[in-house]
Predict the structure.
Amino acid sequence: MYKEFFGLRANPFNVNPDPRYLFLTRHTEEALACLTYGIQSRKGFVLLTGEVGTGKTTLINKLLEWLRLQQVATAFVFNSRLNVPQFLDYMMADFGIPCDSRSKSQILLRLYNWLLDRYRAGETAVLIIDEAQNLSDELLEEIRLMTNLETSTEKLLQIVLVGQPELELKLKQAHLRQLRQRLTLRAKTHPLTMDETKSYVAQRLRIAGSSGQQIFDPEALNAIHLYSGGIPRVVNLICEHCLVSAFVDQQRVVTQSVVEAVARDFDLGDSTASAALSVPPRPSGSDKFDLVDALKTLANLADRLRESEQDLPKERKV
């Protein structure tokens, strides 16, 4: 409803993991390069982790888009609450491998022969598992055993495990050490910095059709970063509702007060962010509070107070 008001063709802050909106920070570029290298080099096992809302699924969708352009066979498991038979059925169906048998041994044999045929044709296959922190230990062990599908020199199946930081903690357990040792490459997503948040918002507006006119003023962008903590999903949430609010009020530019109101509505207005927004900007080159300077200032103030007291007329001293 606000697109025409702000001169946009599409909703710039949709929370769906649309690969068109992938914002390439240094960390994102490194993660994407790590994933593509691991697959192309047939490393077998690659791990991608990151905090909730930092763009893991968007990154994976971009990877899937690239793999399909390369005509690489892929299976994408996004529901990790599966038992072993359900997982095998889903994987085989997504790869498009017909198998009438319900026997696990027959399913794995069919998978092995299919992978071998692709290898002989100079092709590969990629299995991507999202929300992998929820996988049962039994299923993780089954996935580890799939890395035994190999030739004498290379892995036939490339597996990408994607999950929250809890996945890394899970893999540190002693009984999963065999799986941990097979992880050849690790990649991570990270929250955005202040500058990255501003560029992220600008890029999404541009892709959505913005002509470059100012929609969020600088103070609003600062507030968006502080209230979101640089988490892209939360940035999208705040920006979306800011545009709706500004449209309702027929306000062409989103201001800090609009952001603060939205943050309060979603219980994002913590004391740290509020305090940070109320502090006037410090001179450039002084990003952190200097404790030594503060102590010197207090000492000078105390000296001046003592001097003032000495200058008072005697009769006024108590």
In short: Confidence is low (pLDDT under 50) at residues 279-302, 307-318. Strands lie at 45-49, 73-77, 125-129, 157-163, 185-188. The chain has two domains: 24-188, 192-318.
